[in-house]
Amino acid sequence: AVSSTFGIVAFGRTVSYSATKFGVRGLMEALNEEFYMNGYGNEIFVTCVYPGFVATRQEFLDYLHQLRCRVPIQTPDEVADLAIDGVLKNRCEVIASPLYMQLMLKLYSLMPNGINRLVMDIFVDNVPRLGYMKSSLNSES
């Protein structure tokens, strides 16, 4: 299954997206445990892939640039190669991002919330406030 790094780390402005990706993560973890408890732990393997930002839509890339987002952007081929490698190695979890991002995502749940917010501020320093977004939408009507 394919989730997202937003299924590991929730980020503001992605509430619905993060919720569904956390759901995929929970489904795959529970399914993996179900197979194990039924004696299939060495026969049936499930893999959940967590890609980061993938260069698939130009408008999305433009938006990331506008936000001055400092995260690695990968090609679909890079993510596919990591996913296939993980499936072939029967890995439960494949974080399809550069190694330093994999480490950050693993450490994220261990850090206090204040530190996590500082880290997010480093990677994205220009996220508009909700009031700004509403006024921008109203002025376009």
UniProtKB/TrEMBL annotation:
| GO cellular component labels | lipid droplet
Specify the superkingdom.
Eukaryota
The UniProt transmembrane annotation reads none
Q: A single Gene Ontology molecular function, please?
A: oxidoreductase activity, acting on the CH-OH group of donors, NAD or NADP as acceptor
Under InterPro entries, the record lists:
NAD(P)-bd_dom_sf, SDR_fam
Please name the SUPFAM superfamilies in this protein's record: NAD(P)-binding Rossmann-fold domains
Task: Please give the name of this protein.
Answer: Oxidoreductase SadH
> Lineage, please?
Eukaryota, Metazoa, Ecdysozoa, Arthropoda, Hexapoda
